[in-house]
């Protein structure tokens, strides 16, 4: 049946009796394709019927579907004619694992971060109304994303809408890890309480037998109905906000969902349709362990075994985990905070061993940071572990709530730099630029695993905030014989050469080592310096470099605009004049969003691999 779907709306050509088989065929297709490329599997298996039902009710691309986060859009891509592109899913130059307007006009918005869909859909609905159109607007948001504050800001605004918008609450009790908090508990009560829905049906059946009492009885019954809701479903949060609530309904029953969506589309208001789905449905390994199959590498279809297991590969995340376990054993004031990603950030073991000092706040990075500020004010030493791309969401809280008061909060910034196949929305390439703007904040980056350990020990001894950024994946264990004590704002001289100085930040030190080796083979002998500190910069080192070298090369895995290299160039421009000012060469990523691909592919494309850097330095040297 998938062969019959060549473009958007072709699902309507399928006979309804075949929907169940089409769903099975889509799941087999997804398991087979993702097993080869890797990708987000469990979430996509859970929304197959939900996606089919929305497509049956929509006329795409006129109608709009906004996917929160967006990693669950694979079935949507299949049903809009992109199934042939799945062999290149998340591969360099291939199809994105997230909605991309550049791929199809059926993708309403480029998404990748959580809790944004209701806001975007509300904007689309208002634009539709202003232009006198009548197309349908769907926002699909998970129960995990509802732990993010932005979703409530949008719900509060959506309650005032006087035209139609459908908010599909995909309730699978998961974000990446298992959901936590009040909203999860609230939805759990709704899911499990059948008394209200049974009583509601009994009342409706009885009213159908009394056709002559008219509108007055209906209005009176409506008040009783609201009272019944509050008795059987505590709070009725959504209805109390002024948003019509439908559900919960079976998120794997296409007929139920089509009926609900069609009914919801007739109301001149925002409507929440609450569907209950199973993450990983249809593939036993993903059903059993949905967290592991949230984002997964290539695997064996028969049993779900990863083809390239990384369990035994030491990573910076594992080093951080061990540091936290050791530190929390020695210091009772240290606490750990995660924003719905304890596994991804290495804090799951901390949660098990120190449950009273571990806090998972849900998908709420802004709250996580200000919560940490409160903990610090109360005498604790909080560590906030976030991916670089998600730390962006808490910019104001870092600046306003932590840095102004110079509070001793440690930021463990995981997945800094290029991260690969998740693409534009997930590359951790902006943290150097936005963190280095903040007064009172110390920003560091380790060259290897030993230095990561030392930096956390250093951070816990400081009286102000410290951010330590480190890359995804396997650690670099080279330069293990270089382990000088860390001093505030002081870099590390790894090799002293002449004429050319290479100053590298964090993961780029490994690349810089190869660059220096290549240049030495060509008769040059550059100095190699591990910056260690993005902020404060080592001004003493910069003065010494200017006195001994004619070319200074900076290397960083972030965007050039506002980055470390530009800060170095600005410092030299302001302090060094005439013959003392060296020529500056900045190796950084362009002022752009970086697409998906392997880290090595992207470094090669953007001139950050050792060969490209060495060639550029040699060219500059010869042009002197």
Written overview of the protein:
- This protein is an alpha/beta fold and 624 residues long.
- The chain folds into three domains: 2-193 and 233-288, 3-Layer(aba) Sandwich (Rossmann fold); 316-469, 3-Layer(aba) Sandwich (Rossmann fold); 492-622, Rossmann fold.
- Helices cover 40% and strands 15% of the residues.
- The strands form three sheets. Strands 7-6-8-9-11-10-15 form a seven-stranded mixed sheet, with helices on both faces. Strands 1-2-3-5-4 form a five-stranded parallel sheet, with helices on both faces. The chain has a five-stranded mixed sheet with strand order 12-14-13-16-17, with helices on both faces.
- Strand 13, helix 20 (508-521) and strand 14 form a beta-alpha-beta unit.
Fold blueprint:
Layout: H1 19-37, H2 42-46, H3 48-57, E1 64-67, H4 74-79, H5 117-130, E2 137-142, H6 149-158, E3 165-171, H7 182-192, H8 195-208, H9 214-232, H10 237-241, E4 244-250, H11 254-264, E5 270-276, H12 284-288, H13 316-330, E6 334-338, H14 348-353, E7 358-360, H15 365-377, E8 381-387, H16 388-391, H17 395-403, E9 410-414, H18 431-435, E10 442-444, H19 449-460, E11 466-469, E12 492-495, E13 499-504, H20 508-521, E14 527-530, E15 533-535, H21 539-548, E16 549-559, H22 564-575, E17 583-589, H23 599-605, H24 610-622
Parallel strand pairs: 1-2, 2-3, 3-5, 4-5, 6-7, 6-8, 8-9, 9-11, 10-11, 13-14, 13-16, 16-17
Antiparallel strand pairs: 10-15, 12-14
Helix pairs in contact: 3-11, 5-6, 13-19, 15-17, 20-24
